[in-house]
Each structure stands twice: as C-alpha cells, then as structure tokens.
Amino acid sequence: MVDMLPKLFFVHFRETSFVAERDGELAGFLVGFLSQSVPEEAYVHFVGVSPAERGAGLGRELYERFFAAARTGGRTSVSCVSSPLNAGSLTFHAAIGFDASPPKAGYDGPGEDRVVLTRNI
Amino acid sequence: MVDMLPKLFFVHFRETSFVAERDGELAGFLVGFLSQSVPEEAYVHFVGVSPAERGAGLGRELYERFFAAARTGGRTSVSCVSSPLNAGSLTFHAAIGFDASPPKAGYDGPGEDRVVLTRNI
C-alpha cells in the first residue's frame, strides 16, 4: 500500500480525501482528487475498509462524502479503476452505481489490466 | 516505476507533465501537478532521464517547462521529495535552485525517509 499512497496525496488532495475512525482506530479511508485536466471529472485513487468494518456501509459512506466534495468542486462525474480480478471491488462499485468498461489490457503497465469505472453524480 | 506512475497521472495532470523524445525514443519525462490544497504550490511527483541523456541539461529543461506551466497555473513555489540516500538527485536539485529540508524519518511510510525540496518560481 505504501507505493500506492505516498504522503503527497494527504498533503495536496485534502478536500477530497477522507479517513474514518472508530474508537481511535482506522476503520477506512478514501483518497481522491478533482481532475486537473478533465474539468467535469473527479477521480478516486484508493479506498480501503478495515476487514472488521466491511459490509456495514462504510465504503458507501466514504464515497458519498467524496461525491459531495466533488460536486462542491463543480464536478459531474467520478471515475476510478479496479483490477478485473477484484470481484469484491467490481461488485461493490456496481452496487453504488458505477458502470464498468471492458477490461483494458496493460492499462497501468505490463500485466496490470484495469476496468475503468464511471458514475455520474 | 510502475507503482509510482499509474496511468492516472497521464490522464488527469496533462498540463503539468512532459515527455522528451530523441529520434522517437523516450529521453526523459517529468510528471507533476498543481496542488489542489495549497493554492500557491505545484508539486513534482516523478522525473526520469535516460542514462544516455544525462549531463546534457535535459532534466533542467524539463523543470523549466514545469516551472512555466506552474506559473501559468498561478503558482509561486514548487516542491518535491527525494530519498536522503539519492545523492545524484540532491545534487541536481541544489544545482537548479531547490532548498533541502533535513531528512524526515518515515515520511512516505515505514523506512521511507525523505528530504523535502522547495524552490520559489
């Protein structure tokens, strides 16, 4: 996870990144940003929910916070990517209203296939 | 390098990212962005120069392009981070006018110490 989340995200994308705690422990987080190049779009870079917290709606709530921040930033759509092998992620994103592209071979580099997920907000 | 450079940077930060080619081959690149949270600042995420091209000013030229794009975006300072063990990077950044912080232990995660480099533009 360290490679996916250098500190820069927590310094430079604060308005669109959220941490959830329960009893002082990390329960989940979402890191995203307003696209600099695509003015109608916001992008979710990374989401994590603690195993003990799964299935209770925390992922959905983190996304709802992000959608609200993206709307405040003038955005009308949200995108993210997921591995085509990550069935849990694909099921979750479908449940909260994302459409999935066909898998794109090598999207994030050699062997790193991705599905692009998009949703209007 | 793949972990540091998911495709999102080339989709969402196009105005502040540059690729240099020579005879159709990649010679160097710089990926950066305008900070979303720090309105006076731009950030350089990753720079690479091909071994055959080093020492000929290409790194400096990529930074000059980035400084110009950052000024166009209304920014007055640029920051980036480097490992305290990367003497080549620290020497290069000093030569083009960056000031270096003392090393910050665990800045990018456990064992990932960083020097923060800053320069006014």
Give an overview in words.
2 copies of one chain form a homodimer. Chain A is of the alpha+beta class and 121 residues long. In chain A, 24% of the residues lie in helices and 32% in strands. The first copy, chain A, has helices at 8-12, 58-72, 87-95; strands at residues 17-22, 25-34, 41-49, 77-82, 99-100, 115-120. Chain A has a 6-stranded mixed β-sheet with strand order 1-2-3-4-6-5, covered by helices on one side. Chain A is globular, with a radius of gyration of 14 Å. Chain A starts with 7 loop residues before the first helix and ends with a strand. In chain A, 27% of the residues are buried. The interface between A and B is medium-sized, with 29 and 29 residues.
TL;DR of this structure?
The structure is a homodimer of 121-residue chains. The first copy, chain A, has 121 residues and is α+β, with helices and mostly antiparallel strands.
List the helices and strands and how they pair.
The structure is a homodimer of 121-residue chains.
Chain A: H1 8-12, E1 17-22, E2 25-34, E3 41-49, H2 58-72, E4 77-82, H3 87-95, E5 99-100, E6 115-120
Parallel strand pairs in A: 3-4
Antiparallel strand pairs in A: 1-2, 2-3, 4-6, 5-6
Taken as a percent bin, the fraction of beta residues of chain A is: 25-35%
Biggest beta sheet attributes of chain A: 6 strands, mixed
Helix percentage of chain A: 10-25%
What Rg of chain A do the Cα atoms give? 14 Å
Poorly predicted parts of chain A: none
Give average pLDDT of chain A, whole number.
92
Q: Given the C-alpha coordinates, what overall shape of chain A results?
A: globular
Based on the structure, what is the oligomeric state of the protein chains?
homodimer
